[in-house]
Structure formats: structure tokens, C-alpha cells
TrEMBL record:
InterPro entries: 2Fe-2S-bd (IPR002888), 2Fe-2S-bd_dom_sf (IPR036884), Ald_Oxase/Xan_DH_a/b (IPR000674), Ald_Oxase/Xan_DH_a/b_sf (IPR036856), Ald_Oxase/xanthine_DH-like (IPR016208), AldOxase/xan_DH_MoCoBD1 (IPR008274), AldOxase/xan_DH_MoCoBD2 (IPR046867), AldOxase/xan_DH_Mopterin-bd_sf (IPR037165). FAD binds at residues 340, 358. GO terms for molecular function: 2 iron, 2 sulfur cluster binding; FAD binding; iron ion binding; oxidoreductase activity. It comes from Plakobranchus ocellatus. Keywords: 2Fe-2S, FAD, Flavoprotein, Iron, Iron-sulfur, Metal-binding, Molybdenum, Oxidoreductase. Mo-molybdopterin binds at residues 697, 728, 841, 1006. This is Xanthine dehydrogenase/oxidase. [2Fe-2S] cluster binds at residues 78, 81, 113, 115. Residues 167-350 form the FAD-binding PCMH-type domain.
Length: 1236
């Protein structure tokens, strides 16, 4: 056969055999078909009908209702994830046109969005559900689904129509047989070769280094593998049954005698991987991952083994089928010449209790800390025979808890039997040590807790409180409410408009750097990274890599013409000389793991990646890396010149007057930015310069680094920033490393060079949020009025003292909404062998908020008062001075707090929570309130804007110095220009930032770029308006188009530039944004799992420039804070310093079911800001501080449990992220409290 044939959006594509066998559909669509809207991985597709985002709707052909709906609901910010969201819903509606709101929420578990906080996306998608209580809801018109249907069936493609296939693809052979016999023939013909059976190929997301293989056998065409048979004794599922189909078939049969356990199985399967994996991956594929990787905690294997299921296996040698138990399949059957053909699920006796569990770091799309299944035959309190207790996540060798099974066999349940069962289980489990996984103790405790849950369910309890241990946390469908005052003056400023480019993003037409078409003779670059954190580099051997075909160049520090430095301070920050020096390529030593050592350029991305893996680096003087501030302190590695001391008031005197004192320690780990668009730079030589396209928040830094490295003036570099797929501070400094490296490579090779860093490498190479340990002491009155606070901060700066600026920010933001008259703060900047820390959304607010909110909660605990009332006492009043010396004449925090407390019915809900906790021993709830006082300062030189009117038709174009990265900058700029010129905002286009038109600009960060860019555009538009005024006076009745034509005829310059120069307030802030939040959570005490039940937020954004956008910013910031404080754990290898959490398998930002179940956002009305642009305030960062409440509420719930269980009234130390492991372990459970 000459190639693979399939249709994309109705157009036939023939893929020749020259493609590499591992080429994904995603790669083909983007690089060969030019369909850049596709940004996710798909599978092999011969004979298929494929729809992409471009095929369902566009601005030229008209948008699809899903695209229109997500734009209307403000469900896009940066827009990078939006095509995936749209196509996920498109596929879901094909499966279920009459969908429910709950089904929508259940099917967005595989889509990550860092910007929006998910609520607006879910509302947009749930608006297609018939039962959704959402304004503007409307079901999908069936005609909108009938696009790109299969020409053979007239239905959506199922992927099963392909003919047999036999392809030689470079050095591998690809077969697609249509029968088991053909599989057998291929296996016999390739007996001594490495064979890979392929269906969904989902395992490559976990085990990326499996292979390479000589022969690939695609199983999609084998009809025998799709069988489905039901009888009274069993249900037979073909091996190619997808996990989604398994769920549907279990649901279809769970009401039948003997199959009620299917209900529990189907519920469990819904939290296996995500909907895309479940749609693509089959039941046999999951089992084969477990077969080849015994440590893999397969939920499928675990449930099947516990149920006593069997597998059917085809032998290519004998040509026959045989059945095997799950354990024999795992440990005894040689699968090298065999194929799984079916799974057989048995009918279980009526007296069997079957339950399964999966305890994970977040609600969905996460592998288990521990998973478990229990099959217990019981009559009354007597266990009949031997139960089955199957556990995953303990060790590669642990499947059954055999000693516990033996002990429980034929036992009559009693307190003594239960106690012995827990003890037996704990004694027999020996969890393996794995730095990537939870601690052995937690995993053992989880297993005991899950056994308790099951045994508790088997007997009537004398205590209704105890029964709460039986059930899992229940999460209903989420809902949201947003209220705001929409001002009518300055229209369309202050109007809640959707983002201007939302529909373009939803159609996949928004162009990011890596979406730009390939240039002629373009080359691809890949870094080689240091793989030890602290050592001397002796030699670098690239000889093997340079032998590869297509590898054209190899660059090291020796090839740098100019300066090996990418850090740029300009007039933005007060950086020390040490901070200003950051090598692009390491020369002699490695002080931080994964810093670039050298890099290659090649004709293909794949070849460059392969070349990088072949480089041999020799090290000497390898030292154990320093990875914590405690270790750094012990080794005297403080950057003493960077130490910060802040004294406010008279703390020494204040200590003499307080009634009580409290002290404690607070810890916070790091956080990766998790921008959806990874770091990328494209450098293209032109006639007398280099054109650079960068994904950066800081154009000037990139231009500076690119010019420096080749020893050229700044005007040699023409730089453009199309837009960003998220930034969050992670693209302020680090992109300069890429623009410098790509520019050097382009200059030396005289060819275009694209440097696109994958997710894992981004996490390894680039700096993150600064971790810290803070020790505090607070003095206060009997009423809870805090008079004095001492804090010592040990801040992890990484390898350089670059983190000193974030330590300084932390101190400046530490008061949040609370007035403390006396402070003594010492910030110690500690060196470690981690990457140098970088700004991450609200770099000072996040640690500052965690410190002061924790102190307030500890004060409340000491006084036996609820934190809400202690915090309320300490709120700022108008006229008081804050920690930086600002007089807060316009402070609204008490008004925000009062209104929110009333609207959220806090006092009534506090009573409800107390009553709930008295009634439930193993589920606890808590409520707290938090504040944010975020000072906005207009740092840097400012931003400029040029507004151009085209005289012949009156359309308007704007270019300005701010970077659009999802915050709505373009939209607010267009609103401002439309208002000044008095024209519809639809005729205004805002163009990408370019160095030549917006030089010497500040970074886009700190929440203020949108308002500054808008003010610059307003200034330029005002110049034009005044310039055109004489024409307007002469022709008062002329419409806009005629006015423009007459202005052009009168030779007016219809282009104007204005620079919005930044002036700092006194002493620093121009104004403050105030927010407050009410956060209610619920915790499962036995597992540490939690959920956010309700969140109410009130924010003072002045007269919001665009309330819809500002609410979106609020929600996105809050959920990023939830990740920082609850789920996003960063772990390191103690021997090498390697970061272990370098991908989505083990790094867990929040997903759609980690958001509040009930989420209400209110903007404070009637609060114009006299110091803001058009009376507004910025919104990008303040709300992230409120998420501290999720951690602190969880902690309150756990403290309530400790009071119930042990009679103690203590304060659990604050340690973020407060993962389920940390939460459960903080209670101190043992078997003595497992009462019935």
C-alpha cells in the first residue's frame, strides 16, 4: 500500500510511507496539514473521517454554536486550550445530543485550563443541557452535528471501517490485520522482533521511554475484539471495548441479579484517567500496561481481580484461545506471542458486598495514591468464606492482602475482630519507598482507612456519627452566580463585553508563535540539559549526535559571539549585579539541575531531540544538592547581602503590653506556572537583521538578550509578540534565554531556527514560585486585637539571589487586609541547587497572605474564637497606615467584608457547620474568611500606543506596548478607543506588540498592563479626536466614514501615538485593590480528600473597565491559588536534584471538579477609584490570596476531627500545598479510633 488514507474536514489526505512510525495525528495535522487549531494528541487514523476545530466553524464560514456559546459566556482567556474544549463538547454532543448538566461536568476531566477557573467554560457547555439552570440555555440543533459524516455509514466516524494495512515506515513495519488469524501470522513472521500491539496508545503518556519497536500491530480492524455477550452467568467484553463503552455496558446490566457490583465498578471507572483516554483506550490496553509494568496502579486490573474476572487469550503459536485468572495472566502467562481477546465478568452471589476506591491528589484525572477493591460475602455479621482484598499503590508485588483475607475468612464481625483485622493489614503491608509517590506511612494508613470504611458498612452502627465514614464525598453539579454594577457612562467602557478575540480563539484561528507556518530551510533547536545539580563539567562529547542525518549544528558557550547573559533589569526592578547575570548556556559548572549546557539544531524536531539524548557529559566534583532552606541554613548558604529587615512601629515596646502570645512555623512549596503554551522562540534571518517571534511578557528583555549574544545593536533585532498562551509571570525573564539561543543559532547558521521547549523540559529548566519557611510570633489582646508580629522568612531563591525581589514583595504584602501596628520582619534569601526562582502570579501576595492569615487563625485558636471574628477585629480602617507606610484614605476592606459577610450568610452557616460536625465523625466541614489588599504600582517606564484610522472606510487599528495573554488587554484597549472616538468597537482591531512600534515598554505583568495600555490608547485616540475636531465642526452631520474621508481629503495625519508614562505613588503604590472571600470546605478524615463546597467573593475593582473580564480574572486567580495551596506538589530527587514532578502524570493543577461547587462572585458597587484609569482597579492578581481559605478551612475541619477523636484543641501547622496526604496525616489516626 502506498500510504495511509483518511479524510480531514471532508478533504482526503494520503500520508506517504516516508513518515516515521511514531508520528502522531496531532503532529501531522499541525505540521503537514497546516491545521494549527489542533493542540492535543490523537491516534492512528487510516480510513477515518476526522473533524478538527477548523472544520466545524470559522470566521469566514460562520461559527459553530459551541464556538459561539463559549465566546458569549467568556469561556476563553488566553485561548490556547479553547479549541480542545470546543472539540471535546462537539464529540460529546455527537454521542449524547440530549445531554445533562452532570454529564457535561463528568466529561471535561481531561481538559486543563490555567486561565479561567473553569466556571465560565462549564456554564457555556452546560447551556446545551436540557436540565441546566443557566440563562440563555439552548439545546444543540441536530443539523449542527451532521458535519463531516462518514460517507459509508452517514454517521459520525467510529474508526472501525478501515481495511487491512501493511506499511513499511522507515525502519519499522506497521500492520493492521482484520482477524485474529492475521495477527497470529504477523506474530509468527516476526517471532524474534520487538512487537507492539496498538489500540489507543495511551500508555505513552505514562511510559514515554518504552520502545522503540520493530513491528506495530494495530488492532482496530479486528472485529472479534469488539464482542459483547451477556448471559445469566457472566458478561463478556471484547478486548477492544473502550473504557467508555465498558462504563456504558456496566450501567446497562447493573440492575440484573448478580451484577449489582457493576454500579460500583462503573462509578470507579469514571475517575480512571480522563474522558479522552477512556474514549481511546481499551480494557485490554490497560491490563497490558499492568502486565508490563507491575508497579502501575491499574484500577481496571484491581477491580477485575477482586470480582474474580477472567481473561481470554489468543495464542499465535497454537491458534487457539484459552482463559486465565487475572493473577495467572499477571504472573504466569507469557504474552510475547499472545493477544488478549476478552474479559469475562462473573455473576456474584447476592450476599456479596463489593466496593472499590481510588484516592487521588485531586478529584479527577490523577493516578491513585492507593486504590482498593473489596469482595466480601456476608450474612448478618458472619463472613461466609474468604473475602477478597485487593490493593494498588502499595508495591509492585502487592495485589492481595492475603493475611488479612485469611484472618477475616469465616469470622463473625465484632470490635475485637475488627481491631485485629486492621492490625493484620498494617503488619502485612510494606509500601515501597518512592520519592515520586506519597509516603509509605500514608499509603498504609489509607489502606487501613479503606478497610474500615468497608467493614463499617457491613454492620449496623450504634452511632449515627460514625456512619459518615462509610460514604465517599458527594459532589453535585456545580453552579455559579455573578453580580456587578454596569456603568452607563463612558460607553462601551465599564460594559461587560466578551473578549474581542474570543470567537477567533474558539475556532482555533488565533495564531500563537508555534502556529506560524514553517519557513523555508527552517531548523529546529533542542537544549541538552545538565543532569546533576551540583558538579563541575569536565567534557561534552557530541560526536555520536553529530553523526545523525539532518543534524546540522552543535553550539556551546564557546560559540557565543557577544555576552552569555539573558537577564535584563532595565528600569523595571532594583536588581543586584548578581541578579543581572544569568548564563544562557552553562560553561564550566552546574549549580542547578537541568540548566542548558549545549544545544543542537536539526532539520526536524524529532532528530534534534534524538541528538540531544546522545550527548555524553562528564562531571567531576559531584556534590549532594542542597534542596531545602533548612539545609541551606545549616551550610551557611544565605545570600547575606540580600537580607531584608523591615521594622514598623515599636515592636520591642509592643511585646511588653500584649495579653497573650502565639508562635508557629509556616511552610510553602513551589508552584509551576503551567502556561498552556510552552516556551517558544522563532528567529528568522532577514536582509540586515533577525526577525524574532517570541512568547514573552517582556519584549525588551528578549530583544536585549538576542542582540547581546551576537554582539549587535538592538535595532538588529525585529521582535514580535503575537499573543501568549498564558504567562503568569513565567514569561517575564525566561523567554529571553530562548530568544538569545534561537537568535545565535539563526545568525550562525543563516537559517530560520525554531526553539520550542516541551512541557517536561519547561518544568525542569525554568524557575517557579519561591518556596519559603516562616517562623512567627504574634502578640495580641484578650479580644484578639493583634498588636505585634515578628517573622523570620527563609526564602528559597534557587541558585542565584534573583529571588530576593520576591522576598521583598512578600514582606510588602504581608499585612493583607489587617492592621498590625508593630512588625519586625527579617527576610533571609537562601541559596539552593534548584532553578533560580521566577515571578509567579502575585509573587508577594501569595506567601504574604498565607503568613498573615495563618497567624490570625492561630490567634483565634488560642482564644477559642472563630477566625472570622478575630480577623474582623483586625481589619484596616480608613486613614490607617499600612506596612509600607501608605495612608489608606480610600480603604474599602471593611465595607467589602461587611457586605460579603451578610450576602454569604456567614453567621448562619457557621451554626450549620457546627451542627454538621457534631453529627458526623468522619466528615467535617469548616468556613473561614480571607482578605486581599493588593497594592498596584505603575512600575517601569510605561506603555505607548499608536492609533491609526484608515480614511477610506473609517476602520481603526491599534498597536500598543502590552502583551495579550488572556487578561483581556485587547478588549479593554478597543473599549477605550471606541469610547473616545465614538465608534462601534467592532470596527477596531488591536494588533500584536512589536518592538519597532512599542519600544522601551514595561513588562506586561503585575496586573496593570491592561489599564496602562488602555490609557495609552485613549491618549492617542484623544489626539486624533482633537485633530479631527475642525472637520467635525465643519460637517456636523457627517457619519463616521464620511468624517474620516473628509479628514483624509484635508491631509490630516490619521495616526497618533501616546506614551502613558508611569509615575509611582507615594511611597510605592498608586492605589490598592481590596477583596474578601468566604470559603467553605468538607474533608474526609479517613482519606484526607476534600472538596470546596461554596465560595463567595466580593472584590472592589472600582468602576470595572469590563466586569465580565474582571470576574474571569478573579475566578482564574482563585483557582490557581487553590492549586498552590492544595494540589500542586513539587518533588525533587535528593541525589541528583532532578525535579520529579515534570509532567501531568505527577504534577496536578486543578481541573473542573476542583472548583467550588457553589461559586458566587460580587463586585462592590458605587466605589469609583479616584486614582485609577477611568475610576477602575486592576483585577489579575488580588483574588489569588483568597484561596488561602481553602487550606485553612480544611485545616479547621481536621482540627475539629482531632477535638472529637482525641479531645485536643490544637493548631495544625500550615504546610502548603496541603495535599490529601498532609491533611490525613495531620490528624494522627490509628486503629484505636476506628469505632463502630
Amino acid at each position: 500500500m502506498s500510504g495511509i488514507r483518511f479524510h480531514v474536514n471532508g478533504k482526503e489526505h494520503i500520508v506517504p510511507q516516508s513518515f516515521h512510525v511514531t508520528t502522531s495525528l496531532n503532529e501531522y495535522l499541525r505540521e503537514s496539514a497546516g491545521l494549527k487549531g489542533t493542540k492535543v494528541m490523537c491516534k492512528e487514523v487510516d480510513g477515518w473521517q476526522i473533524s478538527t476545530i477548523e472544520g466545524i466553524g470559522s470566521q469566514r464560514k460562520g461559527y459553530h454554536p459551541i464556538q459561539e456559546r463559549i465566546a458569549k459566556f467568556n469561556g476563553t482567556q488566553c485561548g490556547y486550550c479553547t479549541p480542545g474544549m470546543v472539540m471535546n463538547m462537539y464529540g460529546l454532543l455527537h454521542q449524547k445530543p440530549n445531554i445533562t448538566a452532570q454529564e457535561v461536568e463528568d466529561n471535561f476531566d481531561g481538559n486543563i485550563c490555567r486561565c479561567t477557573g473553569y466556571r465560565s467554560i462549564l456554564d457555556a457547555m452546560k447551556s446545551f443541557a436540557g436540565n441546566a439552570n443557566i440563562p440563555d440555555s439552548k439545546a444543540i440543533d441536530i443539523e449542527d452535528l451532521n458535519k463531516n459524516l462518514c460517507s459509508k455509514t452517514g454517521e459520525a466516524c467510529t474508526g472501525k471501517c478501515g481495511q487491512g494495512l501493511d506499511l513499511r515506515l522507515n525502519d519499522a513495519h506497521w500492520h493492521r490485520p482484520t482477524s485474529l488469524d492475521q495477527i497470529g501470522e504477523v506474530m509468527k513472521d516476526n517471532k524474534h522482533k520487538k512487537i507492539r500491539l496498538v489500540f489507543g496508545n495511551t500508555s505513552t503518556g505514562i511510559y514515554k521511554d518504552d520502545g522503540p519497536y520493530d513491528v506495530y500491530i494495530d488492532l482496530h480492524g479486528v472485529k472479534e475484539l469488539y464482542s459483547y455477550e451477556v448471559n445469566g452467568k457472566s458478561v463478556r467484553l471484547g478486548a477492544a471495548t473502550t473504557l467508555t463503552q465498558v462504563i456504558e455496558r456496566l450501567k446497562a446490566n447493573h440492575h440484573k441479579p448478580g451484577f449489582k457490583y457493576f454500579s460500583d465498578m462503573s462509578k470507579h471507572l469514571k475517575v480512571v484517567a480522563n474522558v479522552m483516554v477512556r474514549n481511546g483506550g481499551c480494557i485490554a490496553g490497560n491490563l497490558m500496561i499492568k502486565y508490563w509494568h507491575k508497579e502501575f496502579p491499574s484500577d481496571v486490573f484491581l477491580m477485575l481481580e477482586c470480582a474474580g474476572a477472567k481473561v481470554e487469550i489468543f495464542s499465535s503459536t497454537s491458534g487457539k484461545k484459552e482463559t486465565s485468572s487475572m493473577m495467572d495472566f499477571l504472573n504466569k502467562v507469557d504474552m510475547t506471542d499472545r493477544v488478549l481477546t476478552a474479559v469475562i465478568l462473573p455473576c456474584l452471589a447476592d450476599n456479596v458486598v463489593y466496593r472499590s476506591f481510588k484516592i487521588t491528589p485531586r478529584w479527577q484525572n490523577a493516578h491513585a495514591y492507593v486504590n482498593a477493591a473489596f469482595n466480601i460475602p456476608i450474612e448478618g455479621l458472619v463472613i461466609k468464606g474468604r473475602p477478597s482484598v485487593v490493593l494498588g499503590g502499595i508495591s509492585a508485588d502487592t495485589v492481595h492482602a492475603t493475611k488479612t483475607e485469611d484472618f477475616l475468612a469465616n469470622k463473625t464481625l465484632s470490635p475485637a475482630v475488627l481491631k485485629e483485622a486492621y492490625s493484620t493489614l498494617r503488619d502485612e503491608l510494606v509500601p515501597t519507598e518512592n520519592p515520586q509517590e506519597a509516603s509509605p506511612k500514608y499509603r498504609k494508613d489509607l489502606a487501613s482507612g479503606l478497610l474500615y470504611k468497608v467493614l463499617l458498612s457491613l454492620q449496623p452502627s450504634k452511632s449515627s456519627q460514625v456512619r459518615s465514614g462509610v460514604e465517599d464525598l458527594h459532589r453535585p453539579t456545580s453552579s455559579g452566580l455573578q453580580t456587578y454594577q454596569e456603568m452607563t457612562h463612558d460607553f462601551p467602557i465599564h460594559k461587560g463585553l466578551p473578549k474581542k478575540e474570543a470567537a477567533v480563539q474558539a475556532a482555533g484561528e488565533a495564531v500563537f508563535v508555534n502556529d506560524m507556518p514553517k519557513f523555508q530551510n527552517e531548523l529546529y533547536a533542542v537544549f541538552v540539559l545538565a543532569d546533576v545539580a551540583s558538579a563541575t563539567i569536565e567534557s561534552i562529547d557530541a560526536s555520536e549526535a553529530l553523526k545523525l542525518p539532518g543534524v546540522t549544528h552543535f553550539f556551546s558557550a564557546k560559540d557565543i559571539i557577544g555576552e552569555n547573559n539573558y537577564m535584563y533589569g532595565g528600569s523595571l526592578f532594583s536588581l543586584t549585579p548578581h541578579e543581572l547575570k544569568r548564563a544562557i548556556i552553562t560553561e564550566l559548572s552546574s549549580g542547578e539541575y537541568c540548566h542548558p549546557i549545549v544545544f543542537f539544531i536539526s532539520e526536524t524536531q524529532a532528530m534534534a531531540t534524538t541528538a540531544a539524548k546522545l550527548v555524553k557529559v562528564t562531571y567531576s566534583k559531584i556534590r549532594t544538592p542542597v534542596l531545602s532552606v533548612e539545609e541551606s541554613l545549616a551550610k551557611d548558604m544565605e545570600f547575606k547581602d540580600a537580607r531584608i529587615t523591615e521594622v514598623v512601629g515599636s515592636p520591642d515596646e509592643a511585646w511588653k503590653t500584649v495579653d497573650q502570645k502565639v508562635e508557629g512555623t509556616i511552610k510553602m512549596g513551589s508552584q509551576y506556572h503551567f502556561y498552556m503554551e510552552t516556551q517558544v522562540s522563532l528567529a528568522v534571518p532577514s536582509e540586515d537583521s533577525i526577525d524574532v517571534y517570541s512568547s514573552t511578557q517582556n519584549l525588551d528583555a528578549c530583544q536585549d538578550a538576542a542582540a547581546q549574544i551576537i554582539g549587535k545593536p538592538l535595532n538588529f533585532i525585529n521582535i514580535t509578540v503575537p499573543r501568549l498562551g498564558g504567562g503568569f509571570g513565567g514569561k517575564v525573564f525566561e523567554p529571553a534565554m530562548l530568544t538569545a539561543a534561537s537568535s545565535l543559532a539563526a545568525y550562525l547558521s543563516d537559517q530560520p531556527v525554531r526553539l520550542n521547549v516541551d512541557l517536561a523540559s519547561c518544568i525542569r529548566i525554568f524557575g517557579k514560585r519561591q518556596p519559603f519557611v516562616a517562623k512567627y510570633k504574634a502578640g495580641f489582646t484578650q479580644e484578639g486585637d493583634v498588636k505585634v508580629v515578628d517573622v523570620e522568612i527563609l526564602a528559597d531563591s534557587g541558585y542565584t539571589d534573583h529571588g530576593a525581589m520576591f522576598t521583598h514583595d512578600c514582606i510588602n504584602y504581608m499585612d493583607m487586609g489587617y492592621f498590625v501596628p508593630n512588625w519586625n520582619i527579617v527576610g533571609k534569601v537562601m541559596q539552593t541547587n534548584k532553578k533560580s526562582m521566577m515571578p509567579t502570579r502575585a509573587p508577594g501576595t501569595v506567601p504574604g497572605a498565607l503568613i498573615i492569615e495563618s497567624i490570625m487563625e492561630n490567634v483565634a485558636k488560642t482564644l477559642n474564637k472563630h477566625p472570622v471574628f478575630v480577623k474582623e477585629i483586625n481589619l484596616y480602617r480608613k486613614g490607617q497606615k499600612d506596612i509600607m507606610g501608605h495612608t489608606l484614605n480610600n480603604c474599602t476592606i471593611r465595607e467589602v467584608w461587611r457586605r460579603l459577610k451578610d450576602i454569604a450568610e456567614v453567621e448562619g452557616r457557621l451554626r450549620q457547620v457546627e451542627a454538621y460536625n457534631q453529627e458526623n465523625k468522619w466528615k467535617k466541614r469548616a468556613i473561614t474568611m480571607t482578605t486581599s489588599k493588593h497594592h498596584m504600582h505603575h512600575y517601569g517606564p510605561g506603555l505607548g500606543a499608536t492609533v491609526t484610522i484608515y480614511g477610506r472606510d473609517g476602520s481603526v487599528a491599534v498597536t500598543q506596548g502590552g502583551v495579550e495573554m488572556g487578561q483581556g488587554l485587547y478588549t479593554k484597549v478597543a473599549q477605550g478607543v471606541a469610547h473616545v472616538l465614538g465608534v462601534p468597537w467592532e470596527i477596531i482591531k488591536v494588533k500584536p506588540m512589536q518592538g519597532i512600534s512599542s519600544p522601551n515598554s514595561m513588562i506586561s505583568g503585575g496586573s496593570i498592563a491592561s489599564e496602562s495600555a488602555m490609557q495609552a490608547a485613549i491618549g492617542a485616540a484623544q489626539i486624533l479626536k482633537e485633530r479631527m475636531q475642525p472637520i467635525r465642526e465643519k460637517f456636523p452631520d457627517a457619519d463616521w466614514k464620511e468624517l474620516c474621508q473628509r479628514s483624509e481629503a484635508n491631509k490630516l495625519d490619521l495616526s497618533a501615538r501616546f506614551f502613558n508614562r508611569h509615575e509611582l505613588g507615594d511611597p510605592l503604590a498608586n492605589y490598592h485593590t481590596y477583596c474578601a472571600g468566604v470559603i467553605e470546605t468538607e474533608v474526609d478524615i479517613l482519606t484526607g480528600e476534600s472538596q470546596i463546597g461554596r465560595v463567595d467573593i466580593m472584590a472592589d475593582y472600582g468602576e470595572s473597565l469590563n466586569p465580565v473580564i474582571d470576574i474571569g480574572q478573579t475566578e482564574g486567580a482563585f483557582i490557581m491559588g487553590v492549586g498552590c495551596f492544595l494540589t500542586e506538589d513539587t518533588k525533587f530527587d535528593k541525589e541528583t536534584g532532578r525535579i520529579l514532578t515534570d509532567g501531568t502524570w505527577n504534577y496536578k493543577p486543578p481541573t473542573t471538579k476542583d472548583i467550588p461547587i457553589d461559586w458566587r462572585i460580587h463586585l462592590l458597587p458605587d466605589s469609583p477609584n479616584p486614582f485609577g484609569i477611568r475610576s477602575s482597579k486592576a483585577s489579575g492578581e488580588p483574588a489569588i490570596a483568597l484561596a488561602t481559605g481553602a487550606l485553612l478551612a480544611n485545616k479547621q475541619a481536621l482540627e475539629a476531627a482531632r477535638k472529637d477523636l482525641f479531645g485536643v484543641r490544637d493548631f495544625i501547622p500550615v504546610d502548603a500545598p496541603f495535599t490529601p496526604e498532609k491533611a490525613q496525616q495531620s490528624v494522627g489516626l490509628d486503629e484505636s479510633v476506628f469505632a463502630v
